[in-house]
Recover the amino acids of this structure.
């Protein structure tokens, strides 16, 4: 370690002469300190453990500083995240696990386990993070989390360069309680079946921002980079604006989101209480210079009693300490730490109350029940609305992968609880008949991973029939052949079912001028319509189509079906046979 | 302030004021215009028609069971691919990939149809083959599921998606088609153009064959075409003068067109028609493959009357072969 390298951020100031000369890394120093910590000559098992780690770092990593290893790890996961975001597209998606970050996010796994009582498919991978967090603390925040890396990078590029200012901005602040309040309120709401963690979970938030605002925004400026045709998303300004707000806040409070808002950080912080290795300051060596705060990412007070719940395990303090008083230690002195999160009991009670009350007032609006909105047309394979609110984490991966741009984040259509969940907007796109990509990337099973055969009721699923997401209805006052003596029936042409759900009859009409003309007037057969909406999308009456799909008739809910025999396969099959 | 400073400051202020005035006058729009009624200009596609010897056929009709052999035979009947493709040509192949459907449903150009024609073109010494279409369903899905993307990968054909920047305004003296966004990028480098269309039923205009195939070269609000569908399709014969069109009637979509959806919508007809006159090719397809009465197909009559082709295919020079 040399402060002259310029990498440690100290700018060459404030470093004491190194106590011992030699090309030693902080890790070897750490081993030394571990040795010093051992009392007497009795062999201490902690010593052996420390030696093993020391051997690993001193031989395998040679002179590699651990903060540099960390930066490599952050860069790797950041690039991997962006890679997955970019290839979540029919053209490039070749079975890559594009939702991997969401699947290893333990908050997603645990919260959906609370709402549904199950762990859906790959969400079991959340254990991969849960276990090491219990041992090491919140290392995820500063080694893996791509959103955390974005904030750190922003702060590095645009944050204050003044050393004293940085030290002051990295002291623990009571604002950091906020994230525990947010997390607890969300978990309590989850107990009632309302999954809201996705609003602020960093992985969900980052995925959502990329899918709905950032990639379409980049594509606007550089056409044809991500889309064949420009994608648009309802309310992208809000989603993008929130991302920019959190990113911008880094200039005022470094890593504001990570420290004060992030519910995943709060969850990992709660778990960090159990961690067995942590940053430890040797008060006998410490000269109280506060240099350890210069680059402290979590504002975890390494200069005094370490707040385990706030520490991101970034190792910057070890690098910055001029007297090597700080080390990464196995079960150090309990008195030198604040183990639990900074959440006083009464504030926790308030958070719980917020969760209960928030659930109650949101659900009482009836948006998911008696007053459901006709525009809430859910993607094919979606579970019934109540289950959807238990599962959807608003990560908008479905919206990213949708090949027609039909999937849009809601604003208030699905109620407050359904904010940013996906619905189909046929003005923008339509549901592709032979496509189930939304269900393939959904990490939580809000959209189940149905096959194309299941979706279209083919092969062995012919008995149960196709999955319907809504039904199309004509608006005769706007339809060209119905109201305006003009031939059209684009709707019939594009209808993808066989037999077509849209059919037309030729009629001879008397025109305004008294002459006669023959036009085809279209009709919908509700037993065949699957609600894909390509008719609405292709209708030339573009602003408010003459045929529109509404949610009624969806198969996912018996409450919202349309035809009494619509779910009865025998009558449907009879009809199909008749048409043949 | 001394005199030098005063002069310098005045010069600066003067320059800035003069600059602002110059910029203002330069940008000044003195006349109004009526939005939506501005003059439009655009490009007209050149003719890609190959030279023809008097004895060479206009129409090659081949029957058989193997798509590769039948397609080759139909083109051979016209005098072989060398009649159309010269060494070093860049060739645009325009399939119909309108829908996101697997090949068996016959709603899109069959991958084997593209494969055999691409092979012939490459054998004739073409430098490069471009495959392009602007589908109705999402382009990526259509090219993938129709199987054409696989063929393009296998034979190293350049697949062009209808990206935003690939469109240019068309200019045409059509019956109804005048200015419209044209998928022009594939034509920028093309020396020759070959249309490869499946033979399909169509709910509105009764049949989609080689003329209707050019629909996929246009962008914009195509859903307005249906109000004058027959005029539009006849205008396509004016818009594109291809080197060759191939109508693939091996499997014909006879009902529920143009999307199809069930195997029962498809009928095996074992025929491929190649030709230089798309009106003649389509009239053969309509009467002999879809087996319908040509009196009812307005767009052929319109094109015929405007001299864009001959709807009485028997009057052209035609050759029929059984493989």
């Amino acid at each position: 370690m040399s402060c002259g390298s310029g990498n440690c951020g100290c700018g060459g100031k404030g470093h004491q002469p190194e106590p011992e000369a030699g090309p030693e890394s902080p890790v070897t120093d750490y081993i030394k300190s571990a040795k010093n910590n051992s009392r007497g000559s009795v062999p201490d098992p902690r010593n052996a453990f420390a030696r093993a780690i020391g051997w690993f770092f001193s031989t395998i990593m040679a002179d590699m500083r651990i903060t540099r290893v960390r930066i490599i790890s952050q860069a790797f996961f950041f690039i991997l995240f962006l890679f997955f975001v970019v290839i979540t597209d029919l053209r490039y998606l070749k079975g890559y696990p594009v939702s991997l970050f969401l699947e290893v996010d333990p908050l997603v796994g645990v919260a959906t386990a609370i709402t549904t009582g199950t762990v859906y498919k790959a969400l079991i991978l959340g254990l991969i993070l849960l276990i090491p967090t219990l041992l090491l603390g919140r290392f995820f925040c500063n080694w893996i989390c791509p959103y955390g890396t974005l904030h750190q990078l922003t702060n590095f590029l645009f944050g204050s360069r003044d050393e004293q200012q940085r030290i002051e901005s990295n002291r623990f602040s009571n604002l950091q309680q906020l994230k525990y309040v947010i997390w607890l309120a969300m978990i309590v709401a989850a107990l009632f079946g309302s999954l809201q963690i996705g609003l602020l979970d960093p992985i969900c938030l980052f995925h959502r921002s990329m899918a709905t605002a950032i990639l379409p925004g980049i594509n606007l400026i550089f056409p044809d980079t991500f889309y064949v045709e420009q994608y648009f998303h309802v309310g992208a300004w809000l989603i993008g604006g929130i991302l920019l707000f959190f990113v911008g806040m880094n200039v005022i409070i470094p890593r504001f989101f990570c420290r004060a808002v992030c519910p995943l950080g709060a969850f990992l912080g709660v778990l960090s209480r159990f961690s067995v290795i942590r940053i430890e300051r040797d008060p006998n060596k410490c000269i109280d210079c506060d240099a350890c705060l210069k680059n402290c990412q979590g504002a975890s007070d390494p200069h005094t009693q370490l707040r385990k719940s706030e520490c991101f395990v970034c190792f910057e303090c070890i690098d910055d300490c001029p007297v090597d008083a700080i080390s990464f230690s196995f079960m150090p002195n309990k008195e030198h730490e604040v183990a639990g999160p900074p959440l006083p009991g009464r504030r926790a009670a308030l958070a719980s109350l917020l969760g209960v009350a928030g659930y109650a007032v949101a659900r009482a609006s009836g948006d998911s029940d008696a007053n459901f909105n006709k525009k809430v047309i859910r993607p094919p394979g979606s579970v019934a609305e109540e289950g959807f609110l238990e599962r959807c984490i608003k990560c908008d991966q479905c919206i990213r992968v949708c090949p027609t741009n039909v999937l849009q984040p809601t604003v208030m259509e699905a109620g407050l609880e359904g904010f940013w969940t996906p619905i189909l907007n046929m003005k923008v796109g339509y549901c592709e008949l032979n496509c189930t990509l939304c269900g393939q990337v959904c990490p939580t099973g809000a959209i189940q991973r149905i096959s194309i055969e299941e979706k279209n009721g083919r092969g062995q699923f012919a008995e149960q029939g196709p999955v319907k997401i809504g039904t199309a209805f004509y608006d005769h006052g706007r339809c060209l052949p119905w109201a305006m003596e003009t031939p059209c029936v684009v709707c019939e042409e594009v209808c993808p079912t066989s037999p077509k759900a849209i059919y037309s009859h030729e009629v001879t009409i008397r025109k305004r001028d008294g002459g006669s003309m023959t036009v085809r007037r279209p009709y919908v057969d509700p037993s065949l319509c699957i609600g894909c909406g390509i008719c609405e999308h292709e209708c030339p009456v573009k602003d408010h189509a003459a045929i529109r799909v509404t949610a009624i008739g969806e198969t996912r809910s018996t409450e919202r079906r349309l035809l009494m025999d619509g779910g009865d396969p025998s009558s449907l099959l009879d009809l199909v046979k008749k048409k043949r | 302030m001394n005199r030098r400073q005063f002069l310098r400051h005045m010069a600066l202020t003067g320059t800035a004021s003069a600059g602002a005035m110059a910029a203002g006058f330069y940008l000044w729009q003195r006349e109004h215009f009526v939005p939506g009624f501005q003059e439009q200009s655009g490009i007209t596609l050149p003719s890609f028609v190959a030279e023809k010897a008097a004895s060479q056929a206009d129409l090659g009709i081949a029957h058989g069971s193997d798509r590769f052999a039948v397609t080759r035979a139909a083109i051979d009947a016209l005098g072989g691919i060398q009649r159309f493709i010269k060494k070093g040509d860049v060739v645009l192949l325009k399939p119909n990939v309108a829908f996101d459907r697997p090949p068996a449903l016959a709603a899109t150009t069959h991958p084997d149809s593209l494969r055999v024609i691409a092979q012939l073109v490459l054998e004739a010494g073409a430098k490069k083959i471009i495959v392009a279409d602007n589908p109705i369903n999402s382009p990526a899905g259509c090219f993938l599921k129709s199987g054409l993307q696989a063929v393009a990968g296998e034979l190293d054909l350049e697949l062009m998606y209808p990206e935003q920047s690939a469109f240019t305004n068309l200019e045409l003296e059509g019956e109804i088609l005048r200015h419209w966004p044209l998928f022009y990028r594939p034509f920028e480098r093309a020396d020759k153009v070959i249309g490869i269309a499946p033979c399909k039923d169509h709910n509105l205009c009764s049949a989609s064959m080689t003329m209707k195939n050019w629909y996929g070269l246009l962008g914009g609000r195509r859903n307005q075409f249906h109000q004058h569908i027959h005029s539009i399709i006849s205008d396509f014969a004016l818009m594109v003068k291809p080197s060759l069109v191939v109508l693939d009637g091996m499997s014909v979509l006879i009902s529920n067109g143009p999307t199809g959806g069930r195997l029962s919508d498809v009928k095996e007809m074992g025929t491929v028609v190649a030709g230089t006159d798309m009106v003649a090719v389509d009239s053969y397809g309509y009467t002999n493959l879809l087996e319908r009465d040509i009196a009812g197909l307005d767009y052929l009559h319109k094109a015929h009357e405007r001299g864009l082709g001959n709807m009485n295919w028997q009057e052209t020079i035609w050759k029929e072969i059984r493989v």
The first helix of chain A runs from residue 26 to 37. The first strand of chain A starts at residue 277 and ends at 281. The interface with chain B takes residues 89-91, 223-224, 228-230, 403-404, 432-435, 480, 486-490, 492-500, 504, 520, 534, 538-540, 542, 580 of chain A (CB under 8 Å).
